[in-house]
Specification:
This protein has 25 helices and ten strands. It is an alpha/beta fold.
């Protein structure tokens, strides 16, 4: 690896070992292969966009590409653009040090306006001064304003033959599609863990230092695929090497504030075993040693993810994503003793705990609560286990008629809510839909209560004996929306105190049965069973019955005879103080003075 930018002063590793040719790049073989083919065939694009996370080599690749476009041998031999640059060429040093007059670098984060782009466009028409091409490198191009992008589009689509554009961005989605369609795009991916570890080991050797393999793996994981971040951490780690033994994992862990990897596995095993005392002890030991609570949970997420992969895809999946053979063996061990449901549940609880830790005033306490949730969630049945247990306990009685799902759903609600009332609507096969409130855990599902609830007796709450009384109860409690819906959409099949069987009109709200059940519980102090059935016709709605009565009134018939073609727009009840309203009928709701 050639260092062509040193000036005798100390350079950090991220600068000293910045790649100077395509051979020095690691982890981007697909991009290098594509560019090599393009250069060898002469099909060189006029614009490229490089995207990826921080530190993966976007700007470095842009400079190497600018060197390749303008490569001229040290002896002045010009064979045209070339990917292969075995020795430093005429323009290489100036381009690498960002001082070449024909390779112009622009930081779009600080020069976002249309005026800056117009200045760039003005210079496009002039030929290069020294090199073969005039190359414009725009870093963080997504920061340009909309007006700046619009000003650039025409030049970007049809630039002069001596101009090349190279864009770099971490936010590819923020680039207009009109810009992307004019560029060749290369996605620079995160460097894989083993590749980055080997690269760090090589550089540590070149620097005369030594870091244990486990320590290098810690650095690579902490860098999250960013070469620049990894080299910055390695630079710091090598300062701890004072000759003799290599820098060990303990020193790296203390430097980064990481949790002990072996302790993380023990912590996970104790949590999944339901051992709360050991969990809190291990966590507190890691925290007291300097590990950040969020880092501990992130490490737990990583090992849970690894164990879940092994459980889902077999032991061979341990090699993908494992930091080493030790992690792979532990993942296989944990996966063998657990169900997939338990691992995915642990993942969900850890994700929730991590978000809590990041906003909590005391992160350590939030992390402990997250771990305690996992400890006590171990014994909870999964939904399918709860359903099987319900079926085996209730048998056929747990199913209301043909609505198997209805009965099962009510039982689950009773178990999970520990008898706490709440609306649950459960739809079974076509024909039955049952809404139950807090069915008793040991009682047959859907069995209605025939005796008044103690709370209803104590509070002297009303117990409606007919559906009309239920409607009046809704009116008394000023729930006019429910009152209108009961009158308009309910075809009553049967009624007894505590149990209503009905059919709903096709345009009835889906929540009507559930709301009625909850309201009856609140108003009467007892739990009602509302059975919504489609197999029976039921009685006419109260609105239809009332309309039929009105239409049969002698005054209405006479009015329709006198005014042929007239329509009744609304019917409403009229109440006056002490007057006899037997022959008074208001047909127009907007005029209360008509008789």
């Amino acid at each position: 690896m050639t260092d062509i930018t040193t000036d005798g002063t100390y350079q950090v590793l991220a600068r000293k070992y910045r790649p100077q040719s395509f051979e020095d790049l690691i982890g981007h073989e697909a991009m290098v292969r594509t560019l090599r083919n393009a250069f060898s065939t002469g099909r060189i694009a006029h614009a490229w966009v490089l995207t990826g996370v921080r530190g993966v080599g976007k700007t470095t690749t842009a400079r190497i590409l600018a060197r390749a476009l303008n490569y001229v041998g040290p002896d002045g031999q010009d064979d045209g653009p070339s990917i292969d640059m075995p020795v430093e060429g005429t323009h290489c040093r100036a381009i690498a040090e960002s001082r070449h007059p024909d390779v112009l670098e622009m930081d779009a984060a600080s020069r976002t306006g249309v005026g800056d782009i117009r200045e760039l466009i003005e210079g496009v028409r002039y030929a290069p001064v020294e090199a073969r091409y005039k190359v414009y490198i725009i870093d963080e191009v997504h920061m340009l304003s909309t007006q700046a992008f619009n000003a650039l589009l025409k030049t970007l689509e049809e630039p002069p033959p001596h101009v090349k554009f190279i864009f770099a961005t971490t936010e590819i989605r923020k680039l207009p599609v009109t810009v992307l369609s004019r560029c060749q795009r290369f996605d620079l991916r995160r460097i894989e863990l083993d590749v980055l570890t080997a690269h760090l080991d090589k550089i540590a050797g070149l620097e005369g230092g030594a870091v244990a393999l486990e320590g290098l793996q810690m650095i690579a994981r902490a860098a999250e695929g960013s070469v620049r971040d990894a080299l910055s951490i390695l630079d710091q780690a090598l300062l701890q090497h004072q000759g003799g033994d290599a820098v060990g994992p303990d020193a790296i862990r203390d430097m980064l504030g990481l949790a002990d990897r072996s302790q993380v596995w023990q912590l996970l095993k104790a949590a999944l075993a339901g051992d709360g005392k050991t969990v809190l002890s291990l966590f507190r030991g890691q925290y007291d040693a300097g590990a950040d609570p969020a880092i501990i949970l992130k490490d737990l997420l990583e090992v849970v993810h690894l164990a879940t992969r092994v459980k889902a895809a077999g032991p061979e999946a341990a090699a993908q994503g494992a930091a080493g053979e030790e992690d792979a063996a532990r993942a296989i061990e944990i996966a063998d003793g657990l169900q997939l449901n338990g691992l995915t549940r642990a993942w969900s609880l850890l994700m929730k705990g991590l978000s809590d830790v990041q906003i909590a005033p005391d992160p350590a306490s939030a992390a402990e609560i997250a771990l305690i949730r996992i400890v006590y969630a171990v014994d909870l049945p999964t939904p399918d286990e709860a359903l099987r247990a319900l079926k085996s306990r209730g048998g056929p009685q747990a199913m209301a008629g043909s609505g198997a799902q209805a009965g099962a759903g009510a039982g689950i609600g009773a178990e999970a809510g520990a008898g706490t009332p709440g609306p649950h609507a459960h739809a079974g096969p076509r024909g039955v839909q049952t809404t139950a409130i807090g069915a008793a855990q040991n009682a047959p599902a859907m069995a209605p209560q025939t005796s008044p609830h103690p709370r209803a007796q104590a509070a002297n709450l009303p117990q409606p004996q007919s559906f009309e009384e239920v409607v009046r109860l809704a009116e008394q409690h000023r729930d006019l929306k429910l009152k209108v819906e009961l009158e308009s959409f309910v075809h009553l099949i049967s009624f007894e105190c505590g149990k209503i069987r009905l059919r709903l009109a096709g345009d009835a709200p889906d929540t009507l049965a559930g709301r009625l059940t909850q309201c009856l519980l609140d108003w009467t102090g007892r739990r009602w069973t509302i059975s919504v059935e489609q197999g029976e016709k039921g009685a006419e709605t109260l609105r239809d019955v009332r309309n039929a009565e009105v239409m049969g009134h002698s005054l209405v018939k006479e009015a329709l005879r006198v005014f042929p073609g007239a329509e009744i727009m609304a019917i409403r009840e009229v109440k006056t103080d002490g007057e006899d309203n037997e022959n008074v009928l208001f047909l127009d709701p907007e005029d209360e003075d008509k008789e």
